[in-house]
Amino acid sequence: EDKVVQSPLSLVVHEGDTVTLNCSYEVTNFRSLLWYKQEKKAPTFLFMLTSSGIEKKSGRLSSILDKKELFSILNITATQTGDSAVYLCAVEAGGGATNKLIFGTGTLLAVQP
Amino acid sequence: DVKVTQSSRYLVKRTGEKVFLECVQDMDHENMFWYRQDPGLGLRLIYFSYDVKMKEKGDIPEGYSVSREKKERFSLILESASTNQTSMYLCASSPHRGGELFFGEGSRLTVL
Hints:
Oligomer: heterodimer
Strand content of chain B: over 45%
Order of helices and strands of chain A: EEEEEEEEEEE
């Protein structure tokens, strides 16, 4: 059965800290891995990763994929209170008409002033 | 910007009632999805549609049905709501069969 596991489930940090969120997966016919940020409403897209070892970066956020070890990390440097959210990892798997996104349960990040 | 609009943000219904959750997207996306989100379980796919009048079961379709009469609109129907369908429901659309999804803001349904 396809599965996506995120860790930690939650964490609390102080402003300015650096955090690393983890996502491991076991799926059939991996196609891509996506990261989303969810505040109190709709998840918003952060990154899509398809190739191993190539870092994607957007401001203080960055992410990388390891297709050999089947995991991805999301790094946030110099955290701010606005980074407080649930971070969702999703893996696209399958092929043709049946590929679909499998979501992890998310990591709840709380950034304290 | 892509906009996915879910008509009801909060609903409270009674057991046995029929419930309609409406979702409209304005970017001419082919693909639309309904997920439910529960604590500790993440997002789980209920139904999806790759074209008008087409629907496919996701991972947890039991107790739900969908309708896609027009490209921009994808409705989720609970024929007879039950308490275990209390959840956050998220609609999403995408221009391609893979890749990024664009989510609506969610409909929080409580079934009493």
